[in-house]
Amino acid sequence: MKKIVIPLFMLCVSINAQNPSARAIIERVDKNMSADSRVFTSKMVIHNRRNTRTIESKSWSMGEKKSYTEYLSPPREQGTKMLKLDDQLWIFSPSTDRIIQISGHMLRQSVMGSDLSYEDMMEDPHLLNHYTGKVDREEKLEDRNCWIITLSASTPDVAYQTQKVWIDKDRFIPLRKELYAKSGVLLKKMELSDVKQIQGRWFPKKILFKDVLKDGDGTEFQIMEIEFNTQIPDYIFSKASLKK
Amino acid sequence: MIRFLLKGILRDKQRSLLPVMIVSIGVMLTVFLFCWLRGILNDSIELNARFNAGHVKIMSASYAKNVDQIPNDLALTNVDSLMIKLKQAFPEMKWGQRIHFAGLIDVPDSNGETRIQGPAVGFGIDLLSGDPSETGRFNLKKSLRRGRLPFHSGEILMSEEFSNKLKVNPGDTLTLIGSTMNGSMAMYNYAVCGTIAFGTGPMDQGSVIVDIEDVRDALDMNNSAGEIVGYLPDNYYDEEKIGQVVTRFNKLFPPSKNEYEPVIITLRQQNNLGKMMDQIKGLGAFAVFIFVLSMSLVLWNAGLLGGLRRYTEFGTRLAIGEDYSHIYKTMIYESILIGIIGSFIGTSIGLLGSLYLQYHGLDLSSMMKNATILMPSVFHTRITSAAFFIGFIPGLISTVIGTMLSGIGIYKRKTAQLFKELEA
User: Fold this and answer.
1) For A111, which residue in chain B has the nearest alpha carbon?
2) Which residue range is the domain that position A150 belongs to?
3) Burial state string for B379-394 with b = 16 or more CB within 10 A and e = fewer than 16
C-alpha cells in the first residue's frame, strides 16, 4: 500500500508545483509589480493620430490609495501636479494657479491625450485585492512560456471588469494584458517588455498601452528610474504640496 | 376711351373708392405676407450662417466627418497661409477663423477652491484684432446685457442665463477646463467682462465667447482653427454664387487622400439646413398660394359686387341705346384700371411696411423663451423681386375675372323690361 500512496502523493505535489493555482500566480505577480511605496520617473511617448509627444514625470505612490505626480516636461505641462487620494483627484495647473478636483468617470479619461487614464497612471492595485483568477491555458509569447489567466473583478469599483493576462512562468511578470469593460468590450491592450531585476524583483520597465477605442499607435510608458518601498514624507500626499 | 374711363374712376368716388380700397388692402396683405415669409426663411438661414454654418465652411476632411463632436485634434493647421490663399483666390468673400470648443467652466470661491462648475460650449472668434466683422455677425453689441465686450486678452463673455446659473458677474474670474488639441487637459483663467443674451435657447443656455487667440493659447492650437467660415459680401445666401465659390475652391484644393486637407461645405450641406430650407420654401410657397387664392376669391367677389351694385346704371345705359358689348368692355377696362391702381397702391404700402421691418424687424423674443432650436427672435421681412409683382395676381387678375363674371348678366337683360325695372 505504502508503495502506491507515496509515489501518488509525490506525483500530485509535482503536478501542483508545475501548475500553481491562479491565486498563487497572482500573488507572485503582485509581489513583483506592487509595493508598499514607489517613487519613479517616467517618460510617456504618445503616438497620436497626428503627432508624437513626449511627457516626463515623477511619481510617488503609497499603497493603493495615495499617489502624487509632477510633470517635468514639456514646458507647457511642466509644473502640473496631480494628487490622488482614494477615488478623488486634484490637479494643479501652474498657469492658472488653481487646484481643480475631478472624480467619478473623469478618472477614466485620458491623461495628457495618452492611452492611459488617470487611474491607469496613478493606481498601483494589488490584483489579488480586486480580482479572482482562473488559469485558461499556457502559451508561448516571444519565446517566454506563459500562463493565460482570466481575472474577474471581485470588487465593484475597478476600471476593468475582466482582464486577460499573459504571465511569464519563470519571472511571474505580466507580458501582455487585455482589459475589458463590463459589457465585454475590449478597452485596452498592454504589452509589457524590457523586464529587469530591480531590488530583487522582476519588473517591466516599458509598457505599450493601446486604447483600442482611440486613434493613434498607442502610448509607450517607460520607467526611467524606480525605487520600491522607500520612505515618502506624508506632506507629499497633501493638497498643500500641489502648490509648492 | 381709357382716358375717359380713368377720369370717371377718379371723379366718381362712389364708383371707384370701395373697389380700389378692397383691392389695395388685399394686395398689401399679399405683398406683406410674401415678404414676411421670405424674411423668416432668410432670417433663419442667416442666423445659422452667422453663428455657425457660414455661407461656406472650410474644415479639414476628417474634422468635417466628425464635426458634431467638435474634434479640435483634427483642426486645420497653418491657417495663416491658408487665409492668405483664400483672400487672394476669393477677394469677394469675407472670411473668419473660428474655434468651437466644449469644456467645463469652474468658478472658484474666495479660497480658490471650486465653488460651482457648469458645462459650456464656447466660440473662439476674432474679437481683438480691430476687425469688427465677427462682432457684427454675432450681434454682440446689441446682445450685451451687462458689462462690456472684451478689450483685452484673457476676457470672456458669458451668456446671461449661464452667468446667472453659476452666479457669476462681470469682473469675476473663472477657469475653463477643456482639452487641448493634443488631448491634454487644458486649464485657463478668464476674467468675465460681460454677459450676453442672443434670444435663442441653445445659444443662451451655456455659451461663452472668447477671442480666438485666447482659445489658441488655452487649447494649444497655435496657428490652427477648427473652422474657417466664408460669407458672400451682402450677407445674402445666394446658392448660385456659392456654387461658383465651391467649384473654384475645389480647383484650388483638389480632393486628396490627406485627411487634414481643407474641404469646403456649403450652408445647405450642414445640420440638415438644406432640407430645412427646402421645407420652409415649400411651406412658404404653399402659404402664399393659399393666401393669394383666398385674396383672389375676395377680390373676385368684390368685382362681382361692383358689377351688381351698378345694375341700375347699366340698365339706364342700355335703355338709352348703348350696346351690350360696349358696356361689358368698359366694365372690364374699368376693372383693369381699378386693379392696376389698387395693386399699385397695395404693393406700395405693402413694400413700405416690409421695407421698415426689413431694417427694424419685429422682436418676438418674449414668445420664444423656451425655443430649443436656433431660430431668430427678431423677425425681419425680406423684399425680393417677386414682391413687386406678386400682388398683381389677386389685385388685377381676380378683380377682372370677377367683373367678367358679373358682367355676363348684362347680356341677359331685355330692353323691353328695362323701363319697368327702372320705374320700380
Assistant:
1) B184
2) 2-64+110-232
3) bbbbbeeebeebbbbb
Domain membership of residue B383 (yes or no) is yes
- Report pLDDT digits (tens) over B74-112: 999 999 999 999 999 999 999 999 999 999 999 998 888
Grid cell of B236 as nine digits: 445674402
> Residue B91's domain spans which residues?
56-231
Q: Which three cell numbers stand for residue B336?
A: 383693369
DSSP state of B68: G
State how far the alpha carbon of B179 is from the alpha carbons of A110, B186, B219, B350, in Å.
Answer: 10, 5, 6, 53
Residues B84 and B130 in one domain: yes
C-alpha span between B82 and B80 (Å, rounded): 5
Residue in the block written with cell 368684390: B302
Tell which of B231, B249, B264 closes a domain: B231
Q: Biggest alpha carbon distance in chain B?
A: 107
What does the block give as the cell for B365?
423674443
User: Are residues A219 and B184 in contact, defined by beta-carbon separation less than 8 angstroms?
Assistant: no
CB–CB of B265/B227 below 8 Å? no
Whether the Cβ atoms of residue B419 and residue B43 lie closer than 8 Å to each other: no
Tell me whether residue B264 is in a domain.
no
Distance from CA of A50 to the nearest CA of B (A): 8
Close Cβ partners of B249 (under 8 Å, ≥ 6 residues apart) = B56, B58, B89, B90, B264
Specify the pTM. 0.73
Q: Within 10 A of B272 (CB to CB), how many other CB atoms are there? A: 10
* β pairing state of B207-211 and B114-125: parallel
Q: Which residues pair with A202 in a beta bridge?
A: A197
Pairing of strands A131-141, A144-153: antiparallel
What is the least distance, in Å, from the CA of A130 to any CA of chain B? 29
Are B80 and B209 in a shared domain? yes
CB-side exposure of B205: number of CA atoms within 13 Å? 10
Residue type, B363: D
Pick the closest to residue B359 from B367, B351, B371 (CA basis): B351
CB nearest B184 (choices: A77, A97, A100): A77
DSSP sequence for B180-201: -TTS-EEEEEEEEEEEE--S-H
Return the pLDDT at B374. Answer: 56
Pairing of strands B144-147, B185-196: antiparallel
A-chain residues near B187 (CB < 8 A): 91, 93, 95-96, 98, 100
Phi then psi for B340, rounded to 5 degrees?
Answer: -65, -45
For B398, what's the count of Cα atoms within 13 Å in the CB-facing half-sphere?
A: 27
Cis peptide upstream of residue A94 (ω within 30 degrees of 0) = no
Peptide bond into A74 cis (omega under 30): yes
Dist. CA B228–CA B124, nearest whole Å:
11
Longest dimension (CA), chain A: 80
* % of residues, chain A, pLDDT over 70: 92
- B177 interfaces chain A, CB cutoff of 8 Å: yes
User: B121-170 pLDDT, tens per residue?
Assistant: 999 999 999 999 999 988 898 889 999 999 999 999 999 999 999 999 99
The 3-state DSSP class for residue B414 equals coil
Examine the pLDDT at B189 and tell me if it is beyond 90.
yes
Q: Render pLDDT for B265-280 as a digit per residue (tens, 0 to 9).
A: 998 888 777 887 787 7
